[in-house]
Design a protein that fits this description.
The chain is of the alpha/beta class. It is built from 13 helices and 13 strands.
């Protein structure tokens, strides 16, 4: 039997290879490779999808977070409340500006930042709350906005894993003052390399981000701010515009696969036995399943090794919480400070969920899980 990868970018690209090549040829013939009509077109199309007035294409999801915070004057001495369970870019952008990340624990049901716990961490030193929409499910942002506004702060959304998701009819990226997307190749909308975008409906903020992404200059060589080289190139934008046309269908495929996993895990008795907890769906929410992350209540790492021996790839997002990372030791956090996030780090396991995954492959994944626990 062939191996089952955790992510199969090649299968997605193969489906749209012809139109992508046509788009790349169009860029090559134009002779324009930085901040041209392809970027402008992608910005408009993504903003329309995500329910914002503006999209500003940038060089990566990490840079989207960084430049958004720069545009909001997050800096030395400011506090940014965020989750300890996320990819490092969520906290790295805060630290690079000299601000201090203030962590709050997660909601154990969704893995997202718990809004009540986030509100408890807000002070008059808080500049922003950074809400991360983890694994493709929109966080409960509305109460975070209220908590932030009570001290004159704002909410920034890390929506790197959540394009196309929503909550109560409002898309991820359209809740806070800025929403940040990633187009890393493994994302639901993934490019041919790095890329990202900042979403906003604030005209002044969008304009400032456009200036900052080009070294703070307008016009060229007249620098009003110290910005950076955060520009999205035309080749990435052209490829992404092709794939954007398929995003809804691909997300539907992920949801169908998630439903099938739920059924197969239940039929195998893994849920009733309390061994596996499938990812929940928030009422009123649209989950895009960037990852299908289960909780494995015992032997997570041994199960992962077993599946690997059967040619089935899995992922652990994330094995070490941000507050326990070695480079953050000076912040003074310790093990036990955020028990729900730490418990999740011990239990989470991502199963293959890409839309090209077949029912037979899913049956094999679940059979592998059941075989391990039946034997043990």
């Amino acid at each position: 039997m062939s191996d089952i990868p955790l992510v199969d970018v090649g299968a997605r690209i193969a489906e749209v290879e012809g139109p992508i090549r046509d788009a790349l040829d169009r860029v090559l013939r134009s002779g324009r490779f930085i901040l041209g009509p392809e970027v402008a077109g992608l910005e408009q199309e993504v903003a329309e999808l995500c329910g914002t007035t503006y999209g500003v294409g940038v060089s990566s999801g990490s840079d989207a977070l960084l430049v958004a915070m720069m545009a909001l004057d997050v800096g030395e001495g400011d506090e940014v409340v965020t989750t300890p369970m996320s990819f490092f870019a969520s906290v790295g952008s805060i630290l690079r500006l000299g601000a201090r990340p203030v962590f709050a624990d997660i909601d154990p049901k969704t893995f997202n930042l718990d809004p009540a716990k986030a509100a408890e961490r807000v002070t008059f030193g808080t500049k922003a709350i950074e809400a991360v929409h983890l694994f493709g499910q929109c966080a409960d942002v509305e109460p975070m906005i209220s908590a932030a506004e009570s001290v004159g702060a704002v909410v920034i959304e890390d929506a790197a894993q959540a394009i196309g998701s929503s909550r109560d009819g409002r898309p991820a990226g359209a809740w806070g003052v800025a929403g940040c997307l990633s187009f890393f190749p493994t994302k639901n909308l993934g490019g041919l390399g790095d890329g990202g975008m900042v979403l906003t409906s604030n005209t002044d903020l969008a304009d400032r981000i456009r200036i900052l992404r080009a070294h703070g200059a307008r016009p060229k060589y007249f620098h009003h701010h110290v910005g950076g080289n955060f520009r999205l190139d035309e080749i990435q934008a052209a490829a992404l515009r092709v794939m954007l046309k398929h995003l809804d269908r691909w997300n539907d495929g992920r949801r169908a696969n998630a439903d099938r996993y739920d059924r197969l895990l239940a039929e195998a008795g893994l849920i009733d036995r309390g061994i596996v907890v499938p990812p929940p769906r928030v009422v009123g929410g649209v989950h895009i399943f960037h990852q299908y992350v289960i909780r494995v209540t015992r032997d997570r790492d041994a199960l992962r090794d077993h599946l690997s021996s059967q040619g089935i790839a899995t992922g652990v997002y994330y094995p070490v919480c941000l507050h326990l990372q070695p480079c953050l030791v000076e912040l003074g956090y310790r093990e036990g400070d955020f028990p729900e996030a730490e418990r999740a780090a011990r239990e989470v396991l991502a199963l293959p969920i890409y839309p090209e995954l077949t029912p037979a492959q899913q049956e094999r994944v679940v059979s592998g899980i059941a075989d391990y626990f039946d034997a043990s």
